[in-house]
Design the sequence.
């Protein structure tokens, strides 16, 4: 089959987001790229089921997420500790103004249960709405919200973020505090 | 700072919902959200691997028997 240029572009544009999601979800670049490839192949072979005008990115995310859960349930691949290949690949820039260290964040993410991790990534990192995330995860909106809240609470515990944290000395956080105080 | 800015939701839910959590939770939300987006930006900036591009390029060659 030949793909229409529009659909092809939509798929192409989704790839960086799909990869970012897959890498963050699995903590492993190779596994993530396999997942993205599987999702695209599946998407292409089911492209007749895609409803034109709907969100291609959300559709592909759903396929990738389902694929991930299928692989994981089958024990097809172990999800590896992101401390290794992942962390070294990320090459985060030097700390600027006390922002969260990306590697610390990735390591902390790996400690979250999958359902919390995927919900948090979809909404807080990718910018999907709660409703879209609920569709992608085949869960209720309230369930997604509660998973995200628990994920944030757990991450803040692991990373030691609280209101009077050291991180609070940087410009952005000072601005946030000032906003809280109505300054 | 305007009232409007104070009311602005800090998470990017994109649905205009204003979180009802206490301020400390909102602060945590902002720090984590910022970190996650920074992580995503660096991941998205990576070049798309060749094998994924080739996958799509294979579909670019129109078949001769198709009129389009």
Sequence:
């Amino acid at each position: 089959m030949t793909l229409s240029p529009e659909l092809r572009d939509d798929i192409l544009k989704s790839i960086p987001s799909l990869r970012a999601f897959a890498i963050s979800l699995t903590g492993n670049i190779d596994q993530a790229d396999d997942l993205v490839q599987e999702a695209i192949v599946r998407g292409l072979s089911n492209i007749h089921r895609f409803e034109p005008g709907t969100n291609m990115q959300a559709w592909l995310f759903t396929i990738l997420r389902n694929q991930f859960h299928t692989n994981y349930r089958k024990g097809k691949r172990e999800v590896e500790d992101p401390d290794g290949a992942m962390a070294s690949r990320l090459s985060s820039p030097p700390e600027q103004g006390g922002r969260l260290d990306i590697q610390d964040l990735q390591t902390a993410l790996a400690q979250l249960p999958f359902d919390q991790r995927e919900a948090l990534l979809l909404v807080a990192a990718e910018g999907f709405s709660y409703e879209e995330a609920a569709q992608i995860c085949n869960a209720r909106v309230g369930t997604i919200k509660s998973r995200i809240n628990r994920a944030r609470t757990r991450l803040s515990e692991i990373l030691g973020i609280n209101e009077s944290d050291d991180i609070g000395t940087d410009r952005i956080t000072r601005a946030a505090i000032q906003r809280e105080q109505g300054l | 700072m305007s009232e409007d800015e104070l009311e602005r939701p800090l998470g990017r839910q994109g649905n205009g919902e204003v979180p009802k959590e206490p301020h400390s939770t909102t602060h945590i939300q902002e720090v984590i959200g910022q970190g996650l987006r920074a992580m995503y930006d660096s991941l998205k900036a990576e070049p798309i691997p060749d094998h994924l591009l080739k996958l799509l390029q294979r579909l670019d060659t129109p078949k001769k028997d198709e009129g389009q």
